[in-house]
């Protein structure tokens, strides 16, 4: 297939659905990792055309959703300083902190700017030597190459007024943490295609073998997702636990080596707290000692902020595949996209936002 439309072909979609439904003989729980995949499933009603034995649960693969509240509050504290230009991708600006969001900081006079690339933030630093320019480096392995390149570039140019507030998370440790939980329901994974594009497939092999779960790197269009589900269901029915690649047009076994190299040069693996889930060992990235001058948390001494989540929000259970958004008592009532209580509602990739947008009320 060559063009995007072909990955939305209804005739082919019906054929794959029929094959999935003819293959399944008993109940299986399959988790799609990425929020982009969740939206595609809900938007296209994929979960509604599959045999009732197949339950799709939504994973923690929305970077905005899993960024801890403390980090949002740290961003707000830094962005409120008069000497700072705070830069971020647009989706982080509406995420509520304990008291406000970054848009409010902007409306109160803070210099908060949306950028489309971390290198744009470096450019702003270059052009504003009298200001501290901070980039909010959030995301999975997908955004880590660009974000690490920004620090590498700033260091090479000896820019002393650029830094990053880093809250990077890594997908495989989170998948493993879910599988090792006593409450785990997941029996097969659709791995996030764009993360696999950067990191490759090899790190999934020991997870698949240890927990006996099939893992299929999967894209984001309806045909991608249906093919990914078919591959997982076939493995489950045959008792296999292999790592397979549905997203062949993007993912290679070893991934993108130059991208991995720049990540490793600037960042190191660290323990990281995931919003709604808690701390997962070795599941994040932080800045290496050699580049510590570019660490905004150290530069602005915002290391000690502690926060409390809303009592009503069950996004942690949703992100672990234990509950669906409509099971949250606040869904569509106290919590809506215009008044979100939790990050899974505020983010465009969040499962609660998908259920609200496509009116999945049960
Ligand atoms: S609907 Fe709102 S309150 Fe409920 S889990 Fe989702 S984000 Fe949290």
User: What is the CATH T-level topology of the largest domain?
Assistant: Rossmann fold
Which whole number gives the mean pLDDT? 93
Structural class: alpha/beta
- The total number of structural domains is 3
Which features characterize this protein?
single chain, 362 residues, alpha/beta, Rossmann fold, six-stranded mixed beta sheet, five-stranded parallel beta sheet, 19% strand, globular
Structure commentary:
The chain is an alpha/beta fold and 362 residues long. It has three domains: 4-56 and 171-245, Rossmann fold; 65-169 and 255-299, 3-Layer(aba) Sandwich (Rossmann fold), CATH 3.40.50.11740; 315-357, no CATH class. Helix content is 39%, strand content 19%. The protein is built from 17 helices and eleven strands. The protein has helices spanning 10-23, 35-43, 46-49, 63-66, 69-79, 102-107, 118-127, 144-156, 171-180, 193-199, 205-211, 222-238, 257-266, 296-299, 315-319, 343-346, 351-357, and strands at residues 28-34, 54-61, 84-88, 111-114, 132-139, 162-169, 188-192, 215-218, 243-245, 267-274, 278-287. The strands form two sheets. It has a six-stranded mixed beta sheet with strand order 4-3-5-6-11-10, sandwiched between helices. It has a five-stranded parallel beta sheet with strand order 2-1-7-8-9. Helix 8 links the parallel strand 5 and strand 6. Helix 1 (10-23) runs parallel beside helix 12 (222-238), helix 7 (118-127) runs parallel beside helix 8 (144-156) and helix 8 packs across helix 13 (257-266). The two termini are 35 Å apart. The structure holds iron/sulfur cluster. Residues 312-315, 318, 325, 328, 330-331, 335, 340-342, 344-345, 352 line the site of iron/sulfur cluster (SF4).
């Amino acid at each position: 297939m060559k063009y995007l439309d072909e990955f939305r072909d209804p005739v082919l979609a019906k054929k794959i659905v029929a094959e999935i439904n003819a293959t399944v003989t008993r109940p299986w729980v399959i988790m799609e990792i990425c929020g982009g995949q969740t939206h595609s499933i809900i938007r296209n009603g994929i979960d509604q055309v599959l045999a009732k034995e197949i339950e799709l649960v939504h994973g923690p693969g929305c970077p905005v959703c899993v960024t801890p509240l403390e980090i949002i509050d740290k961003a707000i504290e830094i962005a409120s300083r008069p000497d700072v230009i705070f830069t971020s991708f647009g989706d982080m600006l509406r995420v509520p902190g304990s008291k406000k969001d970054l848009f409010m900081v902007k409306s109160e006079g803070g210099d908060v700017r949306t950028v489309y690339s971390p290198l744009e933030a470096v450019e702003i630093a270059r052009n504003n030597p009298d200001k501290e320019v901070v980039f909010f480096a959030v995301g999975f392995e997908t955004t880590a190459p660009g974000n690490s390149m920004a620090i590498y570039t700033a260091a090479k140019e000896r820019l002393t007024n650029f830094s990053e507030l880093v809250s990077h998370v890594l997908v495989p440790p989170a998948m493993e943490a879910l599988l090792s939980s006593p409450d785990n329901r997941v029996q097969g994974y659709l791995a996030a295609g764009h993360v696999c594009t950067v990191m490759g497939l090899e790190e999934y092999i020991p997870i698949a073998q240890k927990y006996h779960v099939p893992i299929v790197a999967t894209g984001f269009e309806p045909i991608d997702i249906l093919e990914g589900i078919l591959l997982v269901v076939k493995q489950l029915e045959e008792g296999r636990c292999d790592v397979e690649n549905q997203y062949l047009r993007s993912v290679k076994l070893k991934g993108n080596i130059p991208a991995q190299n720049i990540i490793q040069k600037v960042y190191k693996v660290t323990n990281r707290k995931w919003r709604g889930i808690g701390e997962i060992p070795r599941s994040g990235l932080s800045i290496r000692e050699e580049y510590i001058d570019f660490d905004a948390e150290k530069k602005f001494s915002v290391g000690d902020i502690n926060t409390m989540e809303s009592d009503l929000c069950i996004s942690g259970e949703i992100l672990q595949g234990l509950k669906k958004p409509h099971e949250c008592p606040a869904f569509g009532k106290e919590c809506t996209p215009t008044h979100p209580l939790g990050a899974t509602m505020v983010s465009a990739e969040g499962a609660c936002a998908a259920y609200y947008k496509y009116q999945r009320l049960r």
